[in-house]
Write a structure and sequence with these properties.
Blueprint lengths: L2 H40 L5 H16 L1 H10 L2 H25 L3 H32 L5 H27 L4 E3 L2 E2 H21 L19 H11 L3 H31 L4 H25 L9 H13 L13 H28 L6 H26 L5 H9 L2 H11 L9
């Protein structure tokens, strides 16, 4: 690394800290609220709402991907980030009211509306913020920046998921029958959102990458056209679809782990949150490890082994007891951590390549199209969970679904170039 590159990295640290901070606060809020809502639904006997919520969050990525990519390319990315964070605050206010209303039809309606609004916010936010990283740092440093960002945001997810169970648990009525736990959740999400809006003003200022890009009038059809362009670069297409698979699998695992704690192991809301914490901790560790393993010509060498690791660790879920009792929590935490680590190792090379491969004026559109593919997988995971919830023990579901990563490992080993070489 030459001195010019080192200086560019040093200059970017302050702006990167603002980016990571506003991103981390958003994902904390999103996962804290969603986890509280999932636990509220699970312990109220409304388990099917989990799949509906997952689908609602993902739908905007499919319906509005073309517009999100256009915004990221057409306007300064900083402006898009700030507007998205303001929308997040509005969404959190809606969700806070729904949480206070509790298990009434209106309360559930507002909670689900908030989840849809956050899906839209994330859809717009992601191409703008993730597309800013290659503008801030040299391409060689982007995987490291992504690994750090993934670790920071995963830590925020971990914190949100871990404390959600504790926050929602207090059942003491505080006002007109509203329980203390729901009040805590409502206050936290609004307060954190305000902080996120303030921090977003520290994101770097850069001119729009493609200010004359025409508005995508036909919406999703523009995304399909973008996919046609992506498939002209076979390596980029492989990585986009591999990335979509890992997001499908991760979304499904979160939903099944919630059922594992509530229905199979019959542990408390807080302990169910801890189970999810174990998997997300693995993702953070895997993301940091990936920055050391997937560099330069070795950037693809981790993908097939990571997919193999995910498949094997998922099969170990068959050893989880199928009923409550003397539950070996150490074993379960270890399995979930291993699954998460494999996913973290897999994600970083995919996300980094999707960011740096496109030309600057197309970066937002390509990232949005990749998000479209990933969240189509998440929608499918929500629909699948809706159909199969309570039909098989969650531990068996985790094993069966995770085993799908085994043929993925073989495919990636076969199709990915050796030593990072490709035709472009």
């Amino acid at each position: 690394m030459d001195e010019t590159t080192r200086e560019q990295i040093r200059r970017g640290r302050g702006k990167f800290a603002a980016m990571a901070g506003t991103y981390a606060l958003g994902v904390f809020n999103d996962n804290f609220f969603k986890q509280a809502a999932i636990l509220l639904a699970q312990y109220a006997g409304e388990g099917s709402l989990k799949g509906i919520a997952a689908a609602l969050f993902a739908v905007p990525y499919v319906a509005f991907a073309a517009y999100a990519g256009w915004l990221a390319d057409r306007f300064p990315k900083r402006n898009v980030v700030i507007a998205a964070k303001a929308w997040e605050l509005l969404a959190m206010l809606c969700g806070a009211v729904g949480m206070l209303l509790g298990r009434s039809p209106l309360g559930w309606g507002l909670i689900l509306a908030m989840i849809f609004m956050m899906g839209f916010q994330s859809c717009v936010f992601s191409p703008a913020l993730n597309g800013s990283i290659p503008e801030l740092y040299p391409a060689s440093y982007v995987p490291t920046a992504n690994g750090i960002l993934k670790a920071v945001t995963t830590a925020a997810i971990l914190l949100g998921m871990a404390v959600a169970g504790h926050a929602i648990e207090p059942k003491t009525p505080v006002w007109h029958g509203v329980r203390l736990g729901r009040v805590i959740v409502a206050v936290v999400v609004v307060g954190v959102s305000v902080l996120g809006v303030l921090l977003s003003f520290g994101v770097q200022r850069r001119p729009a990458a493609a200010p004359h890009t025409p508005f995508p009038r036909v919406g999703p059809l523009e995304t399909f056209r973008e996919f046609a362009e992506i498939h002209r670069d076979p390596l980029l297409a492989i990585i986009v679809w591999a990335n979509a698979f890992i997001w499908f699998m991760g979304s499904l695992q979160v939903l099944v782990v919630a059922a594992l704690g509530a229905n199979q192991l019959r542990v408390s809301e807080a302990m169910t949150g801890n189970l999810m914490f174990a998997e997300m901790a693995g993702i953070a560790g895997g993301a940091l490890l990936s920055t050391k393993l997937a560099k330069g010509k070795n950037r693809f060498r981790t993908l097939a082994p990571a997919a193999l690791g995910l498949g094997v660790s998922s099969l170990l879920c068959l050893f989880i007891p199928r009923s409550a009792g003397n539950t070996p929590l150490g074993l379960i935490f270890g399995i979930l951590f291993a699954m998460g680590m494999a996913g973290g190792i897999f994600m970083i090379p995919c996300e980094s390549f999707i960011q740096v491969r496109p030309s600057p004026e197309k970066r937002g559109a390509v990232i949005a199209a990749a998000n479209f593919a990933a969240f189509t997988g998440i929608i499918l995971s929500g629909g699948l969970m809706y159909m199969i919830d309570d039909r098989l023990p969650p531990s068996v579901l985790l094993a069966a679904l995770g085993s799908l990563a085994l043929p993925l490992a073989l495919w990636l080993h076969w199709v990915l170039p050796r030593n990072g070489e490709d035709k472009q």
